[in-house]
Specification:
Layout: H1 2-28, H2 41-52, H3 65-94, H4 97-104, E1 111-114, H5 119-131, E2 136-139, E3 152-154, H6 159-164, E4 174-177, H7 182-189, E5 196-200, E6 212-215, H8 217-228, E7 237-241, H9 245-257, E8 267-271, H10 275-280, E9 289-290, E10 299-303, H11 311-316, E11 319-322, H12 327-340, E12 346-350, E13 361-362, H13 365-368, H14 371-375, H15 377-393, H16 406-417, H17 419-427, H18 437-453, H19 455-472, E14 476-477, E15 487-488, H20 499-503, H21 506-515
Parallel strand pairs: 1-2, 1-4, 2-3, 4-5, 5-6, 7-8, 7-11, 8-10, 9-10, 11-12, 12-13, 14-15
Helix pairs in contact: 1-2, 1-3, 8-9, 9-19, 15-16, 15-21, 17-18, 18-19, 18-21
Length: 516
């Protein structure tokens, strides 16, 4: 395509020069009394310019027949040139010209490249621009994006080509692949160098390349839910109705997040086909009471009857999550629940669209696809700092972050994600979802005081959380550690730990100091 364009341009230039040359020859041969004025190439060039641009000063004009024919050609060319100029201007502003110009002028702005302009990508871009107004979001399809938008640019160009068109000196961009075929598209394209890559995928590979992260909607939704709606002190009994992929993530996240204190235990009642959940997590039985209510640890009860088959349970519930993957079913369940049962529980309904009325819905794209949730740079920084705290507690005899296995990285990320629960515990305020610098400083001071007065309390909470996380991944106790068999000598109650092993759990609480 570019070669053909060069041939056409070269041919047009050659024809133009030939016309000028013939014009000079014809006018130079005119009789002296004719008063020919176009006798040099310079004068011919000047005459052609003022004629094509329709200026027409009249200081030069042809006097021969051939000259007048060439002059007429220049006059006809003037209409075409004007049309071409207008067309170029329109296409530049409405086509790819202006967007490419903006890309070239990106400078040091944060740049995000999306493989498509679907709901997830548009929601993430909107949240990015709210947090970082000078960011530039590039989309490999223009659907729904205004050509006048200075921060969102859509072009029918593959993501890797967009990456190569960034100007020299631009910062390290972030590429975001969304959609059901995101991982397949990334595999076909190959992982580009010089960019961080975020890819939507239901299955997270065990081996991750540096700079490559994966996310899926259900896990993001579950994480968002428990961050925005943490359990309060008076909420103990939680019902999950409609067990599917989302409910599974909500339950897993609840069991890992809501490790609150040694004296606060929760009940999780699940309605739906959750048999596979227990088959995937047989190690949980050492940390959670399965099938019966316990007073000293969390309980998980799987119900085979219909959700409305136990009226007493509905009456006594503190929180009810209607979280079937079929969103229309959730709204119908909410209508039936409110119509036929005297429910005093807090009720939340999963819906990916913003519904009208008083429906207490959660799970919209705008809520889920936030920069922190998807990009996770802040959480990863905390996890790296957490690992450094642990290495310091071990005298430096522990692997660095880049040397950790994917499981150990997930373990550190889970511990860092639990930090909000720790802050709420220290501040004795379950309603907090965001924390100011002053609140973080106050929480750390309370931790220092609590460590002096009741050193075992904070350590016990972190150990219980650590055991819960490992039990979720089916680690079990063994006197000798074996990572391949998922065996660990610390998978025991807190009171069975040595004093040295108990003190190691301080490193997770010390992470609060790094936030001040």
């Amino acid at each position: 395509m570019k070669k053909n364009r060069r041939v056409l341009i070269g041919g047009a230039v050659a024809a133009y020069v030939l016309l000028l040359w013939v014009l000079v020859l014809a006018e130079s041969a005119a009789p002296e009394e004719a008063g020919a004025s176009i006798t040099t190439m310079g004068k011919a060039l000047w005459y052609s310019i003022v004629t094509i641009t329709t200026v027409g000063y009249g200081d030069a004009f042809p006097v021969t027949g051939i000259g007048k024919i060439i002059g007429a050609l220049f006059l006809l060319m003037s209409a075409g040139a004007l049309t071409a100029l207008i067309s170029f201007g329109v296409s530049w502003f409405t086509g790819t010209g202006l967007p490419r110009f903006r890309i070239r002028r990106a400078g040091s702005r944060p740049i995000f490249i999306f493989n498509r302009a679907d709901g997830a990508a548009m929601a993430l871009a909107e949240n990015i621009l709210e947090e970082t107004p000078n960011a530039l979001c590039l989309f490999s399809e223009p659907g729904g994006i205004s050509a006048a938008d200075p921060c969102r640019i859509g072009l029918e160009i593959p993501p890797d080509v967009l990456l190569n068109q960034l100007p020299r000196g631009a910062g390290r961009p972030t590429m975001v692949f969304t959609g059901a075929d995101a991982q397949e598209q990334l595999s076909r394209m190959g992982i580009p160098e010089g960019a961080d890559v975020i890819c939507q995928s239901a299955g997270i590979p065990q081996t991750l390349r540096p700079g490559l992260r994966f996310f899926d909607r259900d896990s993001l939704c579950a994480s968002m839910y428990w961050r925005r709606y943490p359990l309060k002190k008076d909420e103990k009994k939680v019902l999950l109705v409609g067990f599917g992929s989302l409910a599974r993530e909500l339950l897993e996240q609840a069991l890992l997040t809501n490790v609150l204190s040694p004296v606060r235990v929760n009940e999780y009642h699940v309605f739906g086909n959750a048999a596979d959940f227990l088959l995937d997590h047989p190690g949980l039985d050492g940390s959670v009471s399965i099938g019966r209510i316990a007073s000293d640890r969390d309980s998980l009860i799987l119900h085979t009857e219909d959700w409305n088959g136990d009226e007493a349970l509905l009456r006594s519930a503190d929180r009810i999550l209607l979280c079937a993957d079929d969103e229309s079913r959730n709204t119908e369940l909410y209508r039936r629940l409110c119509t036929w049962f005297p429910v005093s529980a807090t009720v939340h309904v999963y819906s990916s669209t913003m519904l009208t009325g008083d429906l207490p819905a959660f799970g919209t794209d705008k809520e889920i696809y936030t920069p922190e949730a998807v990009l996770r740079f802040g959480l990863e920084r905390m996890a790296i700092q957490l690992n450094e705290n642990y290495r310091a507690a071990c005298g430096g005899n522990a692997p660095k972050w880049e040397e950790l296995t994917p499981f150990l990285r997930r373990s550190n990320m889970a511990s860092a994600d639990h930090l909000r629960t720790k802050l709420r515990f220290l501040l004795d305020d379950d309603s907090l979802t965001e924390f100011t610098a002053e609140q973080i400083r106050e929480a750390y001071n309370r931790f220092l005081t609590l460590r002096e007065q009741q050193p075992d309390l904070c350590r016990r909470i972190e150990h219980d959380r650590w055991v819960r996380f490992h039990a979720m991944y089916n680690w079990r106790y063994a006197p000798t550690r074996d990572n391949t068999q998922r065996l660990h000598p610390l998978m025991v109650p807190f009171d069975d730990l040595t004093l040295a092993d108990q003190a190691k759990d301080d490193y997770a609480w010390e992470l609060i100091s790094s936030l001040i």
